[in-house]
Amino acid sequence: MSEQRPTLAIGAVLKQLQDEFPDLTLSKVRFLDAQGVVSPQRAGSGYRRYTERDVERLRFVLRAQRDRFWPLKVIREALDAFDRGLEPAPVEGRPSVPASASDADADAPTVADIVAEGDHDLRLSVDELCAATGLDAKAVAGLADFGLVRPGKDGYYDADGLQIARAAAALLAYGIDARHLRPFRLAADREVGLVQQLSFRPGDSDRDAAAEVVRECLALHLALVRAGLRG
Fold it and tell me: Residues near 83 by Cβ (< 8 Å), separated by ≥ 6?
């Protein structure tokens, strides 16, 4: 059973926000609700019930209107970006793509790294992916043609796609063509197939066991590349 989050009546929301926005009224909160910037729950009596997340969204909207004079259209776009996992920029407040750690300097990721859930809620448009990686739309299309990045059914790219695109962009900057990266996709698919063929005992340790196999596959791959370059 999921834990139920505490909610606030509209009057309590107004009280929380009026210290910063003394001119705020119940009518303005209801107006923003009608504009879709928040989606409060409805109690059995029909009254609005707001979560703390709703309150923070309202606070962002009110600050954007007061401090940046953003129209609601721009605010909705920013809120949509936040909902897709982007982060507020420290100065302008415009959403930005979160930084992601690279495994390039590590000998091999740990089991904890592989098992980690990551930011699977991240969803980036192709324009956002280009802005985050320095690639242009043609380069992203080339990576997609060779199976390196794959948008979801909704057309957005997830956190894995972002990390792949960033790594690919670094290699493309050395003059490597996207078609030369195709073997990485094929090798990864073979390693995934190997892990999927293995049988592990049922239980919570399955994922750790599979992650350990993945780690050893990556360590073997790295050792073979190093040996080849030194040979």
Answer: none
